[in-house]
Automatic annotation (TrEMBL):
Organism lineage: Bacteria, Bacillati, Actinomycetota, Actinomycetes, Micrococcales
Residues covered by the YlxR domain: 9-83
Skewed-composition ranges (Polar residues): 99-109
Region (Disordered): 90-109
Superkingdom in the source lineage: Bacteria
Protein name: YlxR domain-containing protein
Length: 109
């Protein structure tokens, strides 16, 4: 029997490919201070997404490499380490059986 293929994404910190469901999505938002990266744990916000493993090592690499600016192809206000840690904690403690997480558009196939 054939194996079910799941959508794959690349972590912008460690550059490893993983199942989309195991990665935290970030999106670009505009505000008075310019553009910022904000977490999108339920994958409902529109726009280009950047993906990361919910691990402190990947968060440190993202900050060190300025990976959000590269991923969004624009200057981005980098979230503070505390903001990233809070997003990681929220993502890892959310109910995995939550049916409100919607697949990224185009990945329903």
């Amino acid at each position: 029997m054939s194996e079910v293929k799941r959508p794959q994404r690349t972590c912008i910190g460690c550059r490893q490919v993983a199942d989309q469901s195991s990665l935290l999505r970030w999106v670009l938002t505009r505000d008075d201070d310019g553009q910022s990266a904000v977490p999108d744990p339920f994958r409902r916000m529109s726009g280009r997404g950047a993906w990361m493993h919910p691990r402190p090592e990947c968060a440190a690499e993202i900050i060190r490499k300025r990976a959000f600016s590269r991923a969004f192809r624009a200057p981005v206000r980098v979230p503070a380490e505390e903001e990233i840690s809070a997003a990681i904690d929220a993502f890892t403690t959310r109910d995995r059986g939550d049916s409100t997480v919607q697949p990224e558009s185009g990945s329903e196939i």
